[in-house]
Amino acid sequence: MVRSIVAASLAALSFASVSQAQDFTFSGGYDRADFDGVEFDTVVLRGRYMFNERFGAEGQLNFGINDESVELGVVTADVSLDYGVGAFAFANLYTNEGLNLFGRLGYVHAELEADAAGITVSEDDGAFAAGVGAEFFFDDRNGVRFDYTWADYEDSANFYGLSYVRRFGG
């Protein structure tokens, strides 16, 4: 799945360089993931291709950077978010030269790992996801993004993010 998202991002980048009328965006930053009270810090990387001024597609990768200790009765488990991957339909709800307010709907997949008393268990799951956010651009190409995404896992998850944004094309 990760390879297909990377391939789609590279294909979109090559198409964006041919067609300057469209918009391709890379962003990278920090997401705080909250899985029903168990919180993880993650590095997030995104690629987005806009088909027109309003609608586009976005791919996302998250990599966990910390472990969380969770009490399970008398045993303490170290839990980590190994990775998360997502694909979204993206819509600009309001846009002008320096500001984009957006919404997105899609699918996310994550793998978590728990280690307790020398036993390691990993679990992966996918879920429907929806989010909103804002991008503020300092100039034609550079900006910052704030966003929130909710994912409908068995126990729902919330992601809060802050990222640097670099726009190409358009």
Concise structural overview:
The protein has one domain (2-169): Porin (Beta Barrel), CATH 2.40.160. Helix content is 10%, strand content 72%.
Structure description:
By secondary structure, the protein is mostly beta strands. The chain has one domain: Beta Barrel (Porin), CATH 2.40.160. 10% of the residues lie in helices and 72% in strands. The chain has one helix and nine strands. The protein has one helix at residues 2-18; strands spanning 23-35, 38-50, 55-64, 67-72, 75-95, 99-116, 119-137, 142-151, 157-169. Strands 1-2-3-5-6-7-8-9 form an eight-stranded antiparallel barrel. A hairpin with a 5-residue loop joins strand 8 and strand 9. The chain is elongated, with a radius of gyration of 17 Å. The two termini are 29 Å apart. Residues 1-21 have low confidence and may be disordered.
For the record, the CATH class is Mainly Beta
Number of domains: 1
Biggest sheet statistics: 8 strands, antiparallel, barrel
CATH architecture: Beta Barrel
What is the fold's blueprint, element by element?
Blueprint: H1 2-18, E1 23-35, E2 38-50, E3 55-64, E4 67-72, E5 75-95, E6 99-116, E7 119-137, E8 142-151, E9 157-169
Antiparallel strand pairs: 1-2, 1-9, 2-3, 3-5, 4-5, 5-6, 6-7, 7-8, 8-9
